[in-house]
Amino acid sequence: MQTIALVGRPNVGKSTLFNRLVGKPLALVNEMPGMTRDWREAIIDVELKDTSTASFKLIDTPGISCFANDELSQTMERKSRQAVDQSDLIFFVVDAVEGILPQDEEISLWLRTLGKPVVLLTNKVESKSAQTHDTYQLGYSDPLFISSREGHGINKIFDLLDSLKQRSEDHSETDIFTQKPEIQIGIVGRPNVGKSTLINAILHEDRLITSPTAGSTRDAISIPFMWKDRHLRLIDTAGIRRKSRDKEVPEALAVKDALRTIKFAQVVLLIVDVTQPFEQQDLTIARRVVEEGRILILVVNKIDLCSDGAKKLDEIKKDINHTLSHSLAQLKNPKIHYLSALDKKNFNSLFEDISSLYKDWNKRISTHKLNQWLMDAQSIHSPPLSKGRRIKLKFMSQIKTRPPQFIIFSNNTADLPGSYVKFLENSLSKTFGFVGIPIRIRLKKGLNPYN
Questions:
Q1: pLDDT recorded at residue 358
Q2: How far apart (Å, rounded) are the C-alpha atoms in residues 366 and 396?
Q3: What b/e string do you get for 282-305 counting C-beta neighbours within 10 Å, with b at 16 or more?
Q4: N or C terminus: which one in the chain shows less Cβ crowding within 10 Å?
Q5: Would you say 152 and 132 are in contact if contact means Cβ atoms under 8 Å apart?
Q6: 3-class SS of residue 327
Q7: Alpha helix locations (H) across 328-414?
Q8: Computed from CA positions of residues 139, 145, 148, 149, in that sequence, does the dihedral angle turn out positive or negative?
């Protein structure tokens, strides 16, 4: 599969073009330059003129600021160069409104030294102030004039890809980028708790930008990953602050993207800093994960910073367990992992838990077993009386997985107290192995629908 990298200075429309070619709003887009800080990738399938299909891996890179001296800009440029090294074809994007700037000329000179094919894309031609004639001063004979926002000229890009005739030779070949990942794992938490560092440690490569400065991650970056022949996808997200602090538009967009990741991920790793657990914002994020029905695993990072060794860590574990039991009662016994992303240890047990919990999250219990359990549960702890009559739970079945959801038919659902429903949830979780998994029990008035 051929890899294509989108390259250019900040704010020329690379992420908008990326979304346009992929057909989904995967990358954050804003007028402020520098929204993209890590390179992200996606697969595009191009229908060729002979009706066959060719697949390409498309990479959106951070903007290259050739004259910037700050550490973050230099790191972003290094990430762009890293992505270009892995590419077979380069789409060099420039801005028709601003014209050709010295930065564009520096990037062009660098690209010519790589010996890779480069296609010049002049973007934003929909504007009345577009200066398309400036494009030719870079020396490319056949630039493509496009509007990634309006879609003008996008067909020319697909025609170009068609002309390359790069078809997939074996569509059955196993490929972590073309197969839908089995488990999507969102990495969330407050700013600067080590989310990107953790992913780099798992991948054993310097894949994502890391910085002591909070807020270095903005986009939710999706990265395919293999563990024991299982297809996974790690999704790095921006740090989630309290709403009152989301004042800047880029940060607000990044937080919104992170919250969307919680909604669509299957497993969510909530990362907290061992030196400052457990804050109210962590609990807010945890509740959000449970409310969405996702699998929640708490990862306490930076244990290498613990003072007094095991004694101090034991105190931290005790405090965290106490906080979770009182403030996150809707999830019994969530999985907790204590590790150091810098030490790159203890990852195997983490992924063992992810695999096990994912299996339980998809588990379906037979109606017979559920109703046997329902009889046993009522014999152990009878439902309360209502107006002198015993509330009867008559029948139940599982109506959904991911997360597991159950319905119980009763002669009186209105007067069944929440404490008894909680008893049922706890018993159900313990009996059928849903510990650490959010479950749902719905009550419906009526008799056994199968009688």
A1: 93
A2: 10
A3: beebbebbbebbbbbbbbbbbbee
A4: C
A5: no
A6: helix
A7: 347-361, 367-380
A8: positive
Residues 136, 217: Cα–Cα separation, whole Å: 35
Instruction: Kindly tell me the number of DSSP H helices and DSSP E strands found in the chain.
Output: 11, 17
The DSSP H or E segment spanning 120 is: strand 118-123
Helix, strand or coil for residue 323? helix
What domains appear along the chain, each with residue ranges and CATH number?
2-164 (3.40.50.300), 183-360 (3.40.50.300), 367-445 (3.30.300.20)
**Dist CA 287 CA 327 (whole Å):** 9
Rounding to the nearest 10 degrees, give the CA dihedral for residues 407, 327, 299, 319.
-140
Report the amino acid identity of residue 207.
R
Q: Which residue has the tokens 């879609």?
A: 151
Using a pLDDT cut of 90, give the percent of the chain over it.
Answer: 33
- Please name which of 397, 395, 406, 405 lies closest in space to residue 447, comparing C-alpha atoms: 395
Please, what is the angle between helix 14-22 and helix 154-164, to 10°?
Answer: 70
- H-assigned helices in 362-448: 367-380, 418-432
Phi, psi at 273, each rounded to 5°: -90, 125
Tokens for 116?
């890779």
Short-list 219, 289, 257, CA closest to 41: 219
What lies within 8 Å, CB to CB, of 218 at 6+ separation is: 28, 35, 36, 37, 238, 250, 251, 253, 254, 257
Q: Average pLDDT in the 7-25 region?
A: 87
What would the DSSP string read from start to end of 8-73? -STTSSHHHHHHHHHTS--S---SSTT---S-EEEEEEEE-TTS-EEEEEEEE-----TT--SHHH
Which of 436, 406, 96, 142 lies closest to 289 in space, CA to CA? 436
* Residue range 393-413, pLDDT digits in tens: 999 999 998 899 999 999 888
Laid out side by side, the sheet with 40-47 consists of 40-47, 53-60, 2-7, 89-95, 118-123, 144-145
Specify the 3-state DSSP secondary structure of 249. helix
3-state secondary structure string across 300-317: EECHHHCCCHHHHHHHHH
Rg for the chain, CA atoms, rounded: 26
pLDDT at 328 over 50: yes
